[in-house]
Amino acid sequence: MKKVLLTVLTVVLCLSFMIGGSVSASTPTVYKFNFGAGSEVPGDYIQVNASEAYTPDKGYGFNTPQDVINVAASGTGVGSTAVQFVKYGVTSANTFNVDLDKGLYQVQVMLGDTSRSSVAAEGVYQLLNLTGITPEDSFLIPITDGQLNLIVTAGIEGNAHTIAALIITKVSKYPVMPRTVWIGGDSTVANYYPKDADELVGWGQIITELVNPETFQVRNMASAGQIAKGFLEGGSLDTILKYIKRGDYFLFEMGINDEKKYSEGQFTIYMRQIVEAVKAKGATVVLVPPQGRAISWTTDGVNLVHYAEDDSYRHATIALSQEQNVGLVDLNVLSSAYFTSIGPAETDLLYKTGDWLHFNRKGATVLAKLVVQDLQKQGMDGFDYLISF
Questions:
Q1: Marked catalytic residue, from 16, 80, 138, 187
Q2: Per residue in 192-219, pLDDT tens?
Q3: Catalytic one of 137, 248, 296, 358
Q4: Whether 161 is catalytic
Q5: I want to staple 149 with a disulfide (CB 3.0 to 4.6 A). Which of 95, 123, 252, 354 is the partner?
Q6: Which residues does residue 328 pair with via DSSP β-bridges, in sequence order?
Q7: Would residue 47 be called left, alpha or beta, if left means φ above 0 and alpha means ψ between -120 and 50 degrees?
Q8: Active-site residue, selected from the candidate residues 101, 145, 198, 355
């Protein structure tokens, strides 16, 4: 967790510079909590048992501690114990509350052991579908009402909704999010944990490495199995609409799973509602038709050609971008051209072993670079950090 804290503070100082905050390197405001019972607590952490109720005097605690239990975790240090939220939900009252002054905060979470859990705060999802032994991630959040209300809850599935540790760092006295690239999509776009693993990586996970951190933060709201209807109605869009603003981008890939769920016409209806809602916030929408599979090969009569232009409701996505006058990065065509240039054997090496749909880190990096490079080519404001491919 010490390594994580250093990473968080680096991000905090960069963001403070970006938005004119008052936090300095020598005087960061940091709150650190270790959850559960029975572990040796590091001296700079506050131990919080499941039974600890919120009181104004302490300024932290569980809103309904009767719905929280202590559990073990398989990590070390602060990752060796956790608490589990027995009752949960994005808008559940069973939250961990921390009194905070008005401002912008970086929130770093370490969960306990989990099969698939999400983190919600202020009534919306903040992080989606963390998995594994003590997975870690962070998010920025503006606090305007004097209190952070956080809960670990279900994403699409999962049952061990736990938290092992929490670090809250004040970025700025101003509760304003910096410019943000918001991303939506399915399993080929999503974050995977631990984030430094190589075998399974979504291209949305790599975008943060390809944009200037002094220009954008990146928030990836993609999740495995996602469809346009689920994105619209399941809470992911709610997060984006709560925070997105003029100057932000929304990169949105959908269609792979939609083909199995409903008609192209219904797909267009759901997509249109999403696009119109984000446009109403003043942000720039960019639709991204999905890349093809490792087996999407045909021939031009002489040579093997990667081709998937008729898959994943691509034509409907392009038509909608024209109808709504929003951006388009045709990752389907861009990736196929790249795969054709390197051939089937090298293309296979970009996918997860034994998987013709999902990518490893090398493949996800290729896709992310194709997306950012095309945004550069189109002259999209702010995408000038990636120099070459």
A1: 187
A2: 999 999 999 999 999 999 999 999 999 9
A3: 358
A4: no
A5: 95
A6: 287
A7: beta
A8: 355
- At 386 the pLDDT is 65
* Annotation says 44 is catalytic: no
Q: What is the pLDDT of residue 158?
A: 52
| Mean pLDDT over each residue of the chain, to the nearest integer | 91
Q: What is the DSSP string of 58-89?
A: TTEEESSGGGEEEEE-SSSGGGSEEEEESS--
Separation between Cα atoms, residue 361 and residue 209, nearest integer Å: 12
311, 292 Cβ separation under 8 angstroms: yes
Query: What angle (nearest 5°) sits at the alpha carbon of residue 378, between those of residues 374 and 384?
Result: 75
Q: Beta strand pairing status for 81-85 and 68-72?
A: antiparallel
Which residues, other chains included, contact 172 with Cβ-Cβ below 8 Å and sequence gap of 6+?
Answer: 15, 16, 19, 20, 21, 22, 23, 103, 104
> What percentage of the chain reaches a pLDDT higher than 90?
86
Rounded CA separation 306/294 (Å): 9
Residue listed under structure tokens 């936090």 = 23
57 in catalytic set: no
